[in-house]
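Hi V.,

You were right to ask for the full record rather than a summary. Here it is.
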Amino acid sequence: MSRKLVRPRDNRMIAGVCSGLARRFGMSAGVMRLLFVLSVLLPGPQVVIYLALWIIMPNEDRYYASAH
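Predicted structure:
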């Protein structure tokens, strides 16, 4: 399995950002989502970063289609 930073088509809740990050760093998607929710309770630009990653991270199917 590839360790590229992409938004997978499976295991999505909203945009697949947490699932993609979890896959990239070898974590459970549930743990990554929990960490994100907990981080939102702290002051900072977490939501803006999430939205930026949603825009920047390619979909898994588009990434592999353009790689071949």
